[in-house]
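Lab notebook page, bench 4
Experiment: in silico fold of construct C2
Operator: M.H.
Input chain length: 330 residues
Purpose: comparison with the prior construct
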Amino acid sequence: MAGVSMQTLNPPNKENMASLPVDTILDNSTTDFDLYIEVNNSLTLYGTSPYKWTKGELTRLLAVGHTTLYYFSADQPKVEVYKKLISIPKIDRSIPPLQRIQNITDTAAELMRILYDYPLTPASLSKGREIADEIVQCVGEDIACVGALGKLANHDYYTYYHSVRMSAYALAVALFLSEKDEERLRELSMGCLFHDIGKSRIELSVINKPGALTEREWQLMRKHPEFGFSMVEQSLLSVVPREVIMHHHERLDGSGYPHGLTEQELLGEVRIAAFADVFDALTSNRAYQVSRTRYEALDLIRFTMLNHLDKKAYRAMVEILGGEGKLKKE
């Protein structure tokens, strides 16, 4: 039962439980393991998974003397994920967007590291939604802040930083094209943040391989959209992020994968995400390529890829990085 203690018919044995101090739980965080309190020397179910905490509730628990919560020892891996997630620093919105976007990329990279090391949980999705909100806020304040997205000298970090840069580029394009619905922008951001989550099922030695992939490795890599979709299938993610996860490698002429969809079959958000994915890949150091400048990447897209990618997204990025950086006026 969420937020209201109730006596369980068969109270768990405390020997099978571990403790979690109430004051270690953060306001607005999500725990995805059942939590119990001790009442009259017996453990009572307090909050079922997933559970969203508020500051007021945490204060009330401490005020009535409940300083400790208990969870089943078998849930220790989930607790470890939770502890890592709440250690990720909050974003300070008082920092100007040009500097803040860099803080956001570091924060999102920490989340990506956790996602590659641990199973996807409601708590990590909740943290992703929080970061998505910060990206929407930051890029919405100053669309030109995407020009401050830094490059990384070490290609091994590409896996962790790529998703947040892609999200920022996609949001800048969507805003330039006059998208104002914050929920749609948030869904686009979420889709970009989690678009490569399926790669967590592939060894990093394959992902970061410096040479050409073997046919078997390439076939495995091409499955990451389907791996990712299956990982979020039982989650509360809406249609847009699911579609971005599944179809960010589709191309407008039907030459992409995994389903060979064409322009008419792809959501507008997916077309923007696919463009942002390619653009960031071209401008990043990777195991098998040296990064291009943004302008070199835009030239390459113009002359060799424009039949595959969304032309409106391309033109928007040209304008955004061309020094104007302003939203279209109505």
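Observations: Residues 153 and 272 are 26 Å apart (CA to CA). The first strand starts at residue 17 and ends at 21.
Next step: discuss at group meeting.
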